[in-house]
Amino acid sequence: MATHLGLSKILKVIRDPRLAVALLNAQLQLRGRARVPLSVRLRGKVHIAASGEVAFGEGITLSGSVVPIEFVSHRGGRILVGDHTFINYGSSISAHDLVSIGRHCHLGHYTFIIDNNQHDLRQHHVVPPSAPVIIEDHVWIGSHSIILPGVRVGQNAAIGAGSVVVEDVPPCSLAVGNPARVVRRLDSSPAKLRSIPRNTP
Fold this sequence. Notes:
Layout: H1 2-15, H2 17-30, E1 41-50, E2 53-56, E3 61-73, E4 78-81, E5 86-87, E6 92-95, E7 98-101, E8 106-107, E9 112-114, E10 133-135, E11 140-141, E12 146-147, E13 152-153, E14 158-159, E15 164-165, E16 173-176, E17 181-185, H3 190-195
Parallel strand pairs: 1-3, 2-4, 3-5, 3-6, 4-7, 5-8, 6-9, 7-10, 8-11, 9-12, 10-13, 11-14, 12-15, 14-16
Antiparallel strand pairs: 16-17
Helix pairs in contact: 1-2
């Protein structure tokens, strides 16, 4: 069975030149700067500044076709991206400590995630303490959203486009606005979740 699955994946790559290019592009741009399985796809470009760790799961799709995606992992920092997550162009993810993105997440274009505010409000030359950002599985984040330090976004939650998330978002919730507020609960039944259209390949 495992051999059959492996063969079917090889045939899929052979039949789809664009997929082959995306897989090769990921290895050429990411290898040596991040932990990247052979199943990661990259269309376009990424910029990685990694004094810390950047690790991708299986089957991730990165779409840097219009504007590159940026990953910045400072010394001691970790950026972890779970299996089959999609990150759209112009997104920027920065970790002094930890930014963890779960499996099957979808990040819209120009998503901005940071675990550190970069400077103190009064002493601008002082870097404040970091606070991990945890995004659980099956989270959808609308374009131009900002996720700030210390936030946990629960499983199956959704963030509306242009939102600024400053506090935790419970699982199966829709949060929108600046600052983002939960406006309703989402149906988390398997049938409903499967019916949501996906833009990922």
